[in-house]
Design a protein that fits this description.
This protein is an alpha+beta fold and about 270 residues long. About 15% of the residues lie in helices and about 35% in strands. The chain has five helices and 14 strands. Strand 5 and strand 6 form a beta hairpin.
Length: about 270
Amino acid sequence: MRPSASDGPPSIVDRPKSQLPADQVPRVEPLSKYGNPSSYVVFGKTYHTLPSSQGFVQRGIASWYGKKFHGKRTSSGEPYDMYGMTAAHTQLPLPTYVQVTNLKNGKQVVLRVNDRGPFHGNRVIDLSYTAATKLDIVKEGTGLVEVRALDPRNYRLAKNQAVSFGGDADIKVESAVAAEPSSEIVTEATTISNQDPQIFVQVGAFGELNNASQLKSQLSGLNLGAVTISSIVKDAKQLHRVRIGPLATVKSADDTVAELNTMGMSDHRVVVE
């Protein structure tokens, strides 16, 4: 369920962006004594904490949290401040500094990850209320984003690797995408363009095209939307990904995932590209 407007005071939304709290400035910090187990379980699902955030880039759906959690203890032991520039993530070490880009409008913020979440299966990061305001996703409740871990020791270089939305040329980046439902980090070449991002639900990935074709045929008769096979080369091997989409909205993706779960098909993840 997405946050409602009542989760945050309207006054901050109406305030000029120049008067909102400044972005975080990455600095070297020790790992928190709390919130960094190698693995943990929430709602019956096991999550694995990454040993390092180096090279981490992830695209997906962001959500935000507000008054309901304001002042409560975060996983790092710090109180949650809905007006601060922080975020929650299921895998990144606490703390980690990240640059979050709204893929629809190009707006960016730099945040400090100090909490665990979101534990909604289709979300990749939970933003503070102020961060969501600066990215212009408060009203919708969700947004399509890129999350890029920053190295405090080389922050200027990291800033120069930001997503670009100007010009006509596409920009290719190396992306370490957190795969769901496993905790594996998958590295693949992706492209960020000036076009609107698209949402897919990936239902399977196979080395054998025949296996992918069989799953595509099975899904095509279920009225879930267009089903395609997207093939890439990864680690010098071809991988055939079976996807439903593109889907028009986040709600469409959520509904598709819910339908798959009802059918007993749980090996899937939402992909934004």
